[in-house]
Write a structure and sequence with these properties.
The protein has 26 helices and 6 strands. By secondary structure, the chain is mainly alpha-helical. Among the domains are: 346-441, no CATH class; 446-562. The strands form 3 sheets. A two-stranded antiparallel ribbon has the order 1-2. Strands 3-4 form a two-stranded antiparallel sheet. A two-stranded antiparallel sheet has the order 5-6.
Length: 562
Amino acid sequence: MELVQIPDAEDDLLSGRSIDEVTIIGQTTIAIDPTDQFPYHDAQEYRYETIQRLVHYIATSTSTDENVIGSLQRWFTQFLTFAKSSDRNRLVASLRNNRNMWLAFPEIITAVRERKPSPNEDPDLRELVFDFQMDFVQLTAILVDIDISLLHSSSGQMISGESSPELFSGVFLHHLHLLTRRDNLLYEDECFEISGITLGVSDDKASLVKKFDSALNGSLGRLDELATLLVGALTSFPKLLVHLAYVTEMVFCVAQLGFCLPIPQSNGVGRRLRDLGTEHRLFSTASTCLEHLFEKKVTQLTTDGVSCMISSLAELLKVCMQGNHRRAEDIHAQHQNDHGYLPSASVPEAVSFEWRFDVLGKLIRSSQMQLRVLAATTMCTELVSLWRRLGEHPENPLLKHLGTYLLRSQIIEYIIGPNCHPEIIVESSNIVGFLVVTKIYHKGHTDRLWQGVTSSPDPRVSEALARLVTTIMNLFENQTMLEFCEKFCHLPIESFTPPSATFGKCSSARCARKPRLRIEPWNIGLTNSVCAYSENPRPSPMAHRLLLPNCNSWLCKNSENC
């Protein structure tokens, strides 16, 4: 028996020499687990703390230390060799013994990729980082296989209330998704050279996805299998939802790449629509599962899992709607039939937003307060982002369509109605604001808001509605502001409350800052200055005190002779 001596791992990694990867006993080769030789690890700290230190250093250092990244990359290659050649049970045992470390490790990959200055500026460092990412892809594929095996072996034995299965691929898939999604390009026009071949960042991302696909002998099939197993496990373990979300994110990346890349055709290389039917079926399965969890297990769901799941499914649906499979074609045709004013090219995004709004609307009305707040803030964020992207053309058909869709969904009526929680009302201000900027807001909404502010039996609801209106007051047109001011003029003194008083001050101040008007301010100013007609009652003292100073200013500003 011959035992090969293994030198000190830390010294060799830092010096650039590789450690021995195997121990030979007779004719048997045994891969060595290099976890204990993790670079820069201090014996006084946990390994995940070492990783956190390295992530902070990589992200914040002004210069790129190739030795640090090189040490990490060489160590990771050592572990990949161990993962490929060792017994599966031994690998799983190593992963479980160092679970916190492996949950944190992918952050190193993302930190290296997103650091500035970009690693691509140095050809040698660029190639080193690319090799690091390729190794990361291969280990991610191995972990997907492990999780599939673990779920298969535990299926039928899952009992609600027990600990959920220990899975490993989720966080790796999430960070691989961050590396490969096409709208996450930090340097869109950047090019680099590897082995004499000039590539762009998109080529880099495509190479990672292709490597992932080949490592799994068909990534879509394996991801579909993993997703199906997770859907089955979610009934017993709802917190696995975040893992399913990470799988869905990677399916989106694979689908996106498959749709965007050229496809060889009989007359050469060209472009044609991909089918994407498998991806769409996976979307349907996962979205149905999500709705079931909302109905039966909503109190057991986490905000991170739900947020990630909604986002990933919406993105997946959008790209699936660009395929040429029967399901997408039927939805597209029906949508065009119902909404012929919307350009055909906008249908995939419209369908994706409609699904997202439906899901968020259900959550806003649910019983889980954290998820309700999440849904309201998420919908606001999506609407603000959409307006910033398309708002230069307010008549954009997609903006009008989505505003109308929100109106028909009755979510606005719920938010400004008497039964909505005050915190949800405040968080939802930009949902109402979106209706305002798309010109879909109407006088009926003004009346409902006024009634809520002045007549709600719950003072918290009155205050929340007043805050909602004052938050978006700068978006209102002049006519809406006049309507509010006129309502204040006829509000009896006994009906004034702290929320309505604050609302009144903000309204009149906003009116005073509004651009020049034609005739409307004269009526308001006269009404609040004197009793213009003897048959009309004098405005309430409170309205007089709140509105008169600003109305006088407004009169002067809008008068031709002032």
